[in-house]
Amino acid sequence: MTPRLSPLLLVPCLAATLPSLAAEPVANALTIYSSAPAGAIPVDTFRAGGQAGYAVPGYAVVRHERELELARGRNEIRFTDVAGYIDPTTVAFTSLTDPNGTRVVEQSFQFDLVSTDKLLQKFIDRSVKVEQIRGEQADTFEGTLLSTRGGIVLKQADGTVRTLSHNASVTLPSLPGGLITRPTLLWDVATDKPGRHVARVAYQTTGITWWADYNLTYSEAATTGACRLDVGAWVSILNQSGATYPDAKLKLIAGDVHRAPAPAAPSAKLMMRAAEAAADSVAGFEEKAFFEYHLYTLGRPTSIPDNSTKQIELFPAVSGVDCERTLVYYGAADYGIGGEPYTDRNLGGSGNRKVDSYLVFRNAKDTGMGVPLPAGRVRVSKLDTADGSLEFIGEDRIDHTPRNETVTLKLGSAFDVVGERRQTDFKVDTGRKTMTEEFEIRIRNRKDVPVRVLVKETLYRWTSWRITAATHSYDKRDARTVHFPVDVGADKEAVVRYTVRYTW
Hints:
By secondary structure, this protein is mostly beta strands. Among the domains are: 124-171, SH3 type barrels, CATH 2.30.30; 330-357 and 411-503, Immunoglobulin-like (Sandwich), CATH 2.60.40.290. Helices cover 4% and strands 55% of the residues. Strands 14, 15, 20, 21, 22, 23, 24, 25, 26, 27, 28, 29 and 30 form a 13-stranded mixed beta sheet that branches. Strands 2, 3, 5, 13, 16, 17, 18 and 19 form an eight-stranded mixed beta sheet that branches. The protein has a six-stranded mixed beta sheet with strand order 1-11-7-8-9-10. β14 and β15 form a beta hairpin. The protein is elongated and about 100 Å long.
C-alpha cells in the first residue's frame, strides 16, 4: 500500500503545472486495425480485472487537429490529449496553416506520471505533515521525511523519530517539478508565421481494436422447406488505449496488414472496463477497396470513450438470403501425408459418431448480400413459433470474405443422426507395393423426416490411390478427399461401403 494523499491539496498544485499554451480542438480522426483472430476476443477483456490495454489485439492511427497560438521563433507546445499506449516513435506534428515555414526542432514523449510513491520520494529530507486516524480521532505530526520503505519514517522537531503505517494521510507543501499528471507530447516548434495555426498531430497507439459480429436468423419456407437467413452485421470497437476520442471521424481497415514483430510488452496496470452500445443508423459505413484491403468509413462522427465497448451497425439488415443446410459425417482420422506409406492397419478409424450441422450461403448480390464481410463471429438463431422468441442454435467464425464467395458455418452436431465407421478389411503386398483397405460407414437417422448426409472420407495412407469399388457415387474434392452424398429415410439406416487401393 502507499500513503494516502490529501486530494484537496493536490488539485491546486497540479493546475499550476499545466501548459499555458491553449490548444483548441478542431477535429479528431481514428483508423482502427485489428490483429485478433476472428471472434477471438475473450469476454473477460470487457470486464474489470481483464486484460490490460497493452494486451488488446489491435492498434489505431490517431489524428488530432488543434488550433494553436504560435509566436515568431521557438515555441514549446505541450499536448496532453494522447493515448496512454501511444507509440512515441510514430508521432508526427504538422502545421496545416504553414507546413513549409513551420518545423519541429525537437519532440519528446513524457510519461513520468505523478504517483504517491514518486511524490514522497521527491520529499525525502524535506518537511511534511502526516495525519494518522485512530478510531474517531486524528493525530497530526510534522517533521522531516526520512523514508517511505515499509511505512513512513518521520523525524520530528525534538529529534525523536516516529514511524507510521501506510494508511496515513500525507500533506505536501507543493508539487515538485518533473512530474506530470497525464502522458504528454512535447514539441519545440520554430515558425516565421506568428498567430493562429491549425496543427495536426498523428500517432499510433495500441489498446484499441475492432471486430465484426453477425447475427443470423434461420427460417424455413412453410411450403417448400427452403432455407432462408436474415443477416444483421455490427462492428464492435473495444477502446482501452487510455484516451477518449470525441466526435471522431472513424475508419476501419479489414484485411491482414503486416507489421514488424515487436518485443514482448511489459506488464501494465489493469484497467477498469465499462460498456456502451450505440444504435444510431442515420449514416452508416461506406465500404471501398483500399490497396489490398477494404476500408469502412463511418458517414457521421462518433465518440469512443476510453474503457468502453461500442457497437455500430456495419450495414442494414438483409432479409431472405438463400442458404443450404448440410449434414456432414467425418468419421476418418486425418494423419496427413508422410514421407512413406502408412502401412499400420490400426490407423483405420477415429471412433467419431457425431454428424455435424452446417449452413452454407453465397455472399452474392443475387442472394441479397454481395458485401465484403470482415472477419468476425457469426451467431445463428431460430424463431420458436410457440412463443415468438429467438433461440440460439450455434455460432462460428468467418475469415475476411470477399463478395461472390461462399460462407460455410458449422453450427453443432445433430442430435438424431449418428454415424459409425469401421475398417472391414486391410491387406499389404510389400512385394508389389500395394495396399488395399475396405470400409463400412453406417448413417442412422432417428428423425421422422428423411435427411441427406455428406460422408467425408480422407485417403491419407499414400498419395497414389484409386477407389476400386463403392456402393454409392462420390465426388473427388481434392488429392486425398472424397464426398459420398447419402440419402437416409425417416428412422432408417444407410450403409456406404467402398474399397481403396494404394500403390507406390
